[in-house]
Specification:
Elements lengths: L3 E6 L3 H14 L22 E8 L9 H4 L21 E3 L29 H8 L3 E4 L6 H14 L2 E4 L9 H9 L3 E3 L9 H14 L3 E11 L2 H5 L7 H12 L11 E8 L6 E11 L5 E11 L2 H20 L3 E2 L1 H7 L9 H13 L5
Helix pairs in contact: 1-9, 3-4, 6-8, 10-11
Length: 364
């Protein structure tokens, strides 16, 4: 079997963790499949993934080999696989559009983007010539126009699209139909972590419901020091993010909370946290006899590696869909690993749906 050829839009911390993971697991055995659904999906292991095209806008990355660019500032995630050989793939200049929030110019060069003075690449041509089969969208939150531009490029190039950010493509009927009509798979939107704030909040909310606890109010506040949190200081870029994270929790409740009783979203940027994300979660409810209770939780995780395993599973499911000629949204894997999928299912149900898709018992 040949490699799964992928392209990445945005060579930031998440792309760094994904690419480090590809090489990390090439040196491991099946029993080391931590953070993955399975060591093999459709006969493909993590090490079978190969990056054949990459796009960014930062001067410290554009023109460099992917294996070098993933460690360039402003990337600040944990390095768990330093030995990355030269890939022979140069990072090409992407479209800036709304990919950079204006306020980021106010911060130090180490933290913010430094836009390269380079001509923009012909994205469709590069995708076709590289042989890319699947592209992952790792643009900054709020990149609405840029995400739609890259989605159109994938449609034109015949490349499957995995939308890891909260811009609604797979969950938008118009876009979903475009991918379905061209028999191109799409997975989205807004990737969950292996064990992050959203999946933890969903699990606890479902536990409250299953145990008959009436949830009255809840909040989830997140802080971090990576470029994603710096970008999200521009609150106008957060509309889709807040919708995505809030609906992921509301969807598991018997009756959704009123808007004033649920608050989920980023809180602040703390530079020295770097890629560490700290979640503060509070849930207030009532037990038998209307007796009040509350739960408070603090979760600290390295943000970018936390979703890389989910991305590897998504890539392999997209590859299966390509081999089977299945286009449009892949409902099962989207529901399992995305916050805002085309259809929401309880996590155990979504997991079983993915297993059925892998074995061929389920079309999508």
């Amino acid at each position: 079997m040949g490699p799964i050829r992928i392209a990445v839009f945005g060579v930031g911390n998440c792309a760094s963790s994904l690419i480090q993971g590809i090489y990390y697991y090439r040196e491991r055995q099946p029993e080391d499949a931590i953070g993955l659904m399975h060591w093999e999906i459709g006969g493909y292991s993590p090490g079978d993934i190969e990056v054949v095209a990459a796009f960014d806008i930062d001067a410290r990355k554009v023109g460099k080999d992917v294996g070098e660019a993933i460690f360039a500032p402003p990337n600040c995630t944990t390095v768990f696989q330093r030995d990355i050989p030269s890939t022979g793939v140069k990072v090409q200049m992407g479209q800036v559009m709304d990919g950079v929030a204006p306020h980021m110019k106010e911060y130090s060069e180490e933290a913010r983007f430094v836009v390269a003075d380079q001509p923009e690449a012909d994205i469709v041509r590069v995708l076709k010539e590289s042989g890319a089969e699947i592209a992952l969208n790792y643009l900054p939150v709020g990149s609405e126009d840029a995400t739609r531009y890259y989605a159109r490029c994938c449609l034109e190039a015949g490349v499957a699209f995995i939308n890891c950010i909260p811009v609604f493509i797979a969950s938008d009927k118009v876009w979903a139909d475009k991918f379905r009509d061209r028999a191109i798979p799409i997975i989205g939107d807004d990737i969950k972590a292996q064990l992050g704030a959203t999946i933890t909040h969903r699990t606890l909310a479902k536990l409250f419901a299953d145990r008959g606890v009436k949830l009255d109010r809840t909040y989830q506040m997140n802080t971090g020091g990576n470029t994603d949190f710096l970008n999200m200081l521009a609150r106008e870029r957060l509309k889709s993010k807040k919708i995505s994270k809030t609906e992921a929790v509301q969807s598991v409740l018997p009756v959704p909370l009123e808007e004033g009783n649920i608050h989920i979203g980023p809180s602040d940027y703390i530079p020295w946290l770097r890629d560490n994300k700290v979640c503060f979660l509070r849930m207030e409810g009532r037990l038998f006899g209307d007796v009040p209770m509350n739960l408070e939780l603090r979760l600290s995780v390295e943000d970018s590696p936390n979703s890389a395993g989910c991305a590897i599973d998504a890539i392999r499911c997209a590859k299966l869909a390509l081999e089977r000629g299945t286009g449009g949204p892949l409902t099962s894997i989207s529901s399992y690993i995305m916050k805002h999928p085309p259809e929401q299912y309880p996590d155990p149900v979504a997991r079983q749906m993915v297993e059925e898709f892998i074995t061929g018992k389920r079309e999508r």
